[in-house]
């Protein structure tokens, strides 16, 4: 029966003892000693390595295992070792210490996991190079940051880790979980991180959690009802050399430098993100190195600096996640057919009329005209009578107007000056003129855009359409200003080379009245095409656009404005008409605009 | 036209320059040697609706383009001819009229008329201007209308029946339901108040200003005619035209108001042509009942105002040169221009009318083009318009396509949606059965358009943001904008998600469902009331069936003014958390038909450290909620979280009866 010295003192690096047996099996020698400091593989901890030096020979121990009550050291032998030889055992301490730290780190991680997901039941652990703890249950993978934080909290608190032997009965009282198949008749060794519940354990542990050094949770893997939590410790414990105080600001500077370096490499590197993650967030990263030095920052500033550390970690992690998932050289799995169609954003469409209204509104806004809204369904007074068109006036014939049936039993309403007699669907936006004047604010620069209605429906007419009405009232308003504003609109909307002209016309509510023409873009206003054919789009190089005029004195008076002090102009144009003229859509039936056929609407 | 206009201008020049400064010459056609002008004359200028009227305009306009032009044979200068009219008075007429209906009544009897075909020149002139040649007598009357713009009529003298032995014409207002058969064989039942002429036997022989009666018309055997030229009260002519829906060219001239001073020159020209073309002789006195002869009046305009309109100052001479050829005698001082208005230009009544004459002849093309240099008004923009634009653009970018449906809907649609017709505006003169009522709701027109598109595309995402017309007794409708969005298929959560995004946009908390809200148009099991803001859900199967739609439709309906009214103006800044949040997923086992919304709301409000609670996953009876804990002051530790988590779990189990899922 080998005495297990490592259980009592895990820090013992050398031991003098005697050889019990030394036998050859194939190329390997198997040596049993009276006592040993070599840890045999088990409980997830790898076996120790080292040398056994006797008077006549030296064994290189490559593996150690338990066999019954004995510990068997396997290895090569130079010279000979005989039972009874006095020998000296020397551990490969560096590796052993790393294994110890990794083992203790496992316990620390376990305690962290228990804080976050106490329902998990430990199944097994590996504290070797690919270290993990496996539990029954599942855990979201993004918990790793929390676990890591908790684990490092334990590390930073530098808690003592102690071992003792107890009976199974006592263990059952004290421990949070009892593995199956524990021997009942022997004292059991338990390990306790101070402040946590004891855990049965037969391995070697460090004495203080700080020795573990920062732990990184490298991943969480869920499979069926099992979850593995992988962790990594610092491979090389930093030698605690000269430690200087670092100011918070210079520490922050170092952090940001590390961040900058990481971001720039992530941006430019061809390496896969996992590799980059290890490089910039892994145990050997500059960031981790810096993190370990937080304790060199004055206590008062540590929290502040900790926040920055977290921010830097997050920033780097985000950059990694946004980095293309695989930048490695093209293999058959990563090959992409770049000729496949792209993934488009959702595509919606605004109606042509909305598009035109927005554009018209913007153009007039730039010269101080504000869009307003007046009723689409209005008293006859505003639509006609106030515009110098009393009932039965012949000029009304030009507006094929829809009227609203009077409500049965309702008397005509009269307010002074306004006959609230009949309601019409406004056949033009000019009803906005007197309404705008009634607001009582001068000067007026108005654009009224609204639905209009006329009793007409054929290839070039729809019963509902839109107009935009411009109204300018101020002192000394001139025909020049009308020309200026119309010219501005025409060039902004149709293009800088388009020209406009006024021709005499007649409207009851303007005097003088004009028709506005714009130069044809097909023949450049020449009236004939380069081949000498006359232009089919226009008349002698001009296209009729709209009506306009200087506001009639009667209309000004109806709006409460003195025509001897103020003058103004107004125009009313069809939105659909200007939109059609601009877009060159060449609609052969304007009713298509209101057919609401998506096959049409999707074209714009 | 060259009969009345002396100029070297080419037809193309006439077309271009007249269009720029006067009546719009729409096109010119050449037929043989003749040029035919098609001209649009505005309704206020009946004086230009004749050859001589156009010639007068041309004579005024062309000189300003450097082309000499003179008006020839001005009818207003033909009065002197009356002295030369010799007649043997043997036929008489007894005439009664009413100056309120008929400002001027002229007639003359011409005998020994030989009715026959017109000479070639007259036939050609009429036919080229769109009038069919009938016989020389009728052609003369039509020629007078074309040349001078004054319609003329002729009766068969023998059909004007006598009373007390004298052929009698009584011009009067018609009585209700009187009947008259006009030249074109149509019998009209008169509404009453129309201008008619009754003869001595009590027959109606003329529907004045519109068309003569069949009974007194010229026949091939007619020997004696009454040449008859009048002016009428234009409003009465118009009323008859409108009520009988019987338009004639003469009627269209009379309804605009003709110049009584032109009646006599027209009569004289008519007598001249009758003598020449029918061999007829004047056989009566020249009857002329003219109650109130025209007295020229003056209109003045301040020169400052003219200067302001034109952005320039014209010299006295320039002004005279503009006004005189138009027939406008002027008196020009430093400050004022006073114009004497001739009878044929009674459209000129105001200072601005004179400005128009000056400006157009001066040439609108000569007026400078410049933007207003005055200070623009300070106007607060209408935020509703800006919001409409914003929402439309968002919807487009989110993949929705906009419709524009007609504001008018059919009675049938009103019925399908059970909309109250007594509380809707009805069009009294509809164009079609499709467009009868102003829509009180956007649904009927919108869903009809959605239906039309079902065959064209799968997965439609359509919207409209437009006015509905809410009924207000004795008032204009309340024009009330509504946003409706529709999806094909059951897209309840897309509709809800869109609503959530829009409420966020307006900064309005998502409303709690109101169990009282009527939601009849939605499927009972898939609908959600949004209180005063509207509702969403899958279209009710009944309505879907009534509309003839075969697939389910999901609809979101939002009352736009409510959103605008409650929009959050300020958008306070939320500090960016300095400390990392703790993210935790909690899985709960829920009973059947469990509503998760209230649980999320309650958990969210469960503790100050809870930043957000969101639904991460739904699987069978498990609902996984993601809880984000955040403390703006510090990093959270397990000790901070544990009690909060316990509180949440307790809340969930005690208030909602759901338990945390355990492995």
User: How many angstroms does the end-to-end distance of chain B come to?
Assistant: 105 Å
How many E-type strands of chain B? 32
Indicate the low-confidence ranges of chain A by residue numbers. 237-242, 413-417
Structure annotation, total helices of chain A: 15
Shape of chain A: rod-shaped
Instruction: State the secondary-structure class of chain B.
Output: alpha+beta
Radius of gyration of chain A: 46 Å
Task: Count the beta strands of chain A.
Answer: 27
- Strands of the widest sheet of chain A, in order across it, are 16-22-23-27-26-25-24
How would you characterize this protein structure?
The complex is a heterodimer of chains A (604) and B (663). Chain A has 604 residues and is α+β, with helices and mostly antiparallel strands. Helix content of chain A is 28%, strand content 28%. Chain A contains 15 helices and 27 strands. A 7-stranded mixed sheet of chain A has the order 16-22-23-27-26-25-24, with helices on both faces. A 6-stranded antiparallel beta barrel of chain A has the order 2-3-7-6-5-8. Mean pLDDT of chain A is 86; it is low at 237-242 and 413-417. In chain B, α3 packs across α4 and α4 packs antiparallel against α7. Chain B has 18 helices and 32 strands. Chain B is elongated. Chain B is 29% helix and 25% strand. In chain B, the strands form 9 sheets. In chain B, strands 5, 8, 9, 12, 13 and 14 form a 6-stranded mixed sheet that branches. A 6-stranded mixed sheet of chain B has the order 21-24-25-28-27-26, with helices on both faces. The mean pLDDT of chain B is 92. With 663 residues, chain B is of the alpha+beta class. Chains A and B meet through α3, α8, α9, β16 and β17 of A and α1, α5, α8, α10 and α11 of B.
């Amino acid at each position: 029966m080998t005495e297990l010295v490592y259980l009592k003192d895990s820090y013992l690096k050398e031991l003098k003892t005697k050889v019990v047996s030394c036998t050859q099996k194939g190329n390997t020698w198997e040596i049993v000693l009276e006592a040993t400091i070599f840890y045999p593989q088990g409980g997830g901890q790898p076996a120790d390595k080292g040398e056994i030096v006797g008077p006549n020979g030296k064994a290189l121990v490559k593996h150690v295992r338990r066999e019954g009550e004995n510990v068997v050291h396997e290895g090569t032998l130079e010279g000979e070792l005989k039972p009874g030889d006095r020998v000296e055992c020397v551990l490969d301490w560096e590796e052993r210490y790393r294994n110890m730290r990794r083992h203790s780190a496992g316990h620390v991680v376990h305690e962290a996991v228990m804080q976050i997901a106490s329902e998990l039941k430990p199944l097994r652990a590996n504290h070797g190079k690919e270290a993990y703890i496996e539990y029954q249950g599942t855990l979201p993978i993004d918990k790793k940051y929390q676990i890591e934080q908790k684990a490092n909290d334990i590390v930073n608190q530098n808690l003592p880790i102690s071992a003792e032997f107890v009976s199974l009965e006592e263990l059952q009282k004290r421990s949070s979980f009892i593995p199956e198949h524990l021997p009942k008749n022997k004292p059991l060794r338990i390990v306790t991180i101070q402040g946590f519940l004891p855990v049965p354990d037969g391995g070697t542990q460090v004495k203080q959690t700080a020795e573990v050094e920062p732990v990184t949770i490298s991943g969480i893997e869920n499979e069926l009802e099992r979850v593995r939590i992988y962790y990594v410790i610092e491979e090389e414990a930093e030698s605690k050399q000269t430690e200087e105080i670092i100011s918070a600001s210079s520490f922050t500077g170092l952090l940001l430098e590390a961040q900058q370096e990481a971001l720039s490499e992530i941006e430019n590197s061809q390496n896969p993100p996992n590799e980059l993650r290890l490089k910039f967030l892994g145990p050997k990263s500059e960031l981790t190195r810096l993190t370990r030095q937080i304790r060199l920052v004055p206590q008062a500033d540590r929290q502040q600096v900790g926040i920055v550390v977290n921010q830097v970690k997050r920033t780097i992690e985000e950059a990694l996640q946004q980095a293309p998932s695989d930048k490695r050289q093209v293999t058959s799995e990563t090959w992409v057919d770049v000729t496949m169609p792209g993934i488009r954003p959702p595509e919606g469409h605004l109606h042509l009329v909305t598009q035109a209204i927005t554009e018209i509104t913007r153009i007039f806004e730039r010269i101080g005209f504000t869009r307003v809204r007046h009723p689409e369904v209005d008293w006859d007074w505003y639509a006609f009578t106030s515009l110098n068109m009393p009932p039965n006036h012949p000029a009304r014939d030009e507006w094929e107007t829809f009227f609203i049936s009077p409500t049965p039993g309702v008397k005509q309403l009269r307010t002074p000056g306004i006959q609230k007699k009949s309601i019409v669907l406004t056949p033009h936006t000019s009803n906005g003129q007197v309404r705008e004047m009634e607001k009582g604010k001068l000067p007026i620069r108005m654009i009224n855009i609204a639905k209009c209605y006329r009793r007409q429906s054929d290839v070039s007419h729809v019963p509902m359409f839109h107009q935009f009405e411009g109204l300018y009232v101020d002192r000394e308003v001139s025909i020049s200003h009308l020309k200026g504003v119309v010219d501005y609109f025409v060039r902004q909307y149709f293009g800088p080379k388009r020209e406009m002209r006024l021709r005499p016309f007649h409207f009851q509510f303007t005097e003088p009245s004009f028709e506005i023409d714009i130069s044809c873009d097909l023949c450049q206003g020449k009236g004939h095409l380069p081949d000498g054919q006359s232009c089919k789009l226009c008349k002698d190089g001009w296209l009729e656009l709209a009506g306009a005029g200087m506001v009639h004195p009667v209309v000004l008076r109806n709006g409460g404005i003195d025509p001897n002090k103020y003058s103004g102009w107004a125009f009313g144009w069809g939105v659909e008409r200007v939109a059609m003229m601009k877009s060159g859509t060449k609609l052969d039936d304007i009713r298509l605009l209101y057919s609401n056929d998506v096959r049409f609407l999707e074209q714009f | 036209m060259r009969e009345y206009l002396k100029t070297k201008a080419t037809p193309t020049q006439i077309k271009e320059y007249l269009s720029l400064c006067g009546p719009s010459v729409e096109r010119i056609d050449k037929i043989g040697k003749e040029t035919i002008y098609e001209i649009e004359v505005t309704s206020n200028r009946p004086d230009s609706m004749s050859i001589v009227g156009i010639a007068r305009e041309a004579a005024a306009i062309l000189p300003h383009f450097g082309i000499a032009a003179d008006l020839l044979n001005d009818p207003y200068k033909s009065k002197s001819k009356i002295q030369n009219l010799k007649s043997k008075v043997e036929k008489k007429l007894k005439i009664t009229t009413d100056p309120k209906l008929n400002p001027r009544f002229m007639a003359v009897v011409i005998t020994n008329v030989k009715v026959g075909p017109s000479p070639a020149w007259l036939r050609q002139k009429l036919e080229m201007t769109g009038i069919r040649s009938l016989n020389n007598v009728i052609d003369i009357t039509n020629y007078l209308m074309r040349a001078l713009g004054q319609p003329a009529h002729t009766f068969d003298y023998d059909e004007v029946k006598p009373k007390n032995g004298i052929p009698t014409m009584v011009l009067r207002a018609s009585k209700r339901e009187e009947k008259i058969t006009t030249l074109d064989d149509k019998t009209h039942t008169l509404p009453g108040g129309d201008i008619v002429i009754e003869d001595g036997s009590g027959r109606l022989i003329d529907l004045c200003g519109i068309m003569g009666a069949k009974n007194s018309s010229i026949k091939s055997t007619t020997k004696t005619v009454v040449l008859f030229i009048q002016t009428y009260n234009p409003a009465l002519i118009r009323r008859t035209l409108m009520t009988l829906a019987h338009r004639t060219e003469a009627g269209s001239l009379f309804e605009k108001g003709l110049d009584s001073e032109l009646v006599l020159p027209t009569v004289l020209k008519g007598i001249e042509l009758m003598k020449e073309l029918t061999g007829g002789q004047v056989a009566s006195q020249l009857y002329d009942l003219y109650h109130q002869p025209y007295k020229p009046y003056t209109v003045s305009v301040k020169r400052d105002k003219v200067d302001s309109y034109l952005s320039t100052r014209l010299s006295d001479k320039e002004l005279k040169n503009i006004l005189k050829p138009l027939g406008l005698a002027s008196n020009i001082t430093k400050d004022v221009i006073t114009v004497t208005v001739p009878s044929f230009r009674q459209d000129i009544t105001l200072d601005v009318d004179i400005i128009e004459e000056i400006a157009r002849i001066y040439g609108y093309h000569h007026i400078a083009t410049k933007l207003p240099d005055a200070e623009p008004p300070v106007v607060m923009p209408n935020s509703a318009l800006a919001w409409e634009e914003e929402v439309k653009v968002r919807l487009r970018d989110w993949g929705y396509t906009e419709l524009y449906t007609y504001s008018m809907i059919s009675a049938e649609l009103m019925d399908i949606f059970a909309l109250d017709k007594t509380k809707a505006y009805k069009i009294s003169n509809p164009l079609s059965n499709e467009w009868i009522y102003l829509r009180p709701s956007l649904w009927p027109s919108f869903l009809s358009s959605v239906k039309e598109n079902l065959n064209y595309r799968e997965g439609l995402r359509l919207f409209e943001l437009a006015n509905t017309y809410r009924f207000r007794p004795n008032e204009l409708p309340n024009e009330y904008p509504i946003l409706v969005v529709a999806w094909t298929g059951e897209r309840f959560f897309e509709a809800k998600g869109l609503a959530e995004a829009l409420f966020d946009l307006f900064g309005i908390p998502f409303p709690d469902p109101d169990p009282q809200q009527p939601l009849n148009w939605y499927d009972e099991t898939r609908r959600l009331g949004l209180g005063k803001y509207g509702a969403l859900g899958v279209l009710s199967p009944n309505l879907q069936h009534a509309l003839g739609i075969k697939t389910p439709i999901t609809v979101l309906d939002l009352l736009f003014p409510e959103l605008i009214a409650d929009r959050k103006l300020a958008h306070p800044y939320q500090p960016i958390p300095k400390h990392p949040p703790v993210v935790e997923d909690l899985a709960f086992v829920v009973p059947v038909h469990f509503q998760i919304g209230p649980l999320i709301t309650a958990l969210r409000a469960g503790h100050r450290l809870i930043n957000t609670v969101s639904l991460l996953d739904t699987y069978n009876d498990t609902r996984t909620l993601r809880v984000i804990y955040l403390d703006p002051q510090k990093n959270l530790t397990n000790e901070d979280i544990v009690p909060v988590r316990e509180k949440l779990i307790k809340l969930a189990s005690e208030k909602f009866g759901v338990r945390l899922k355990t492995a």
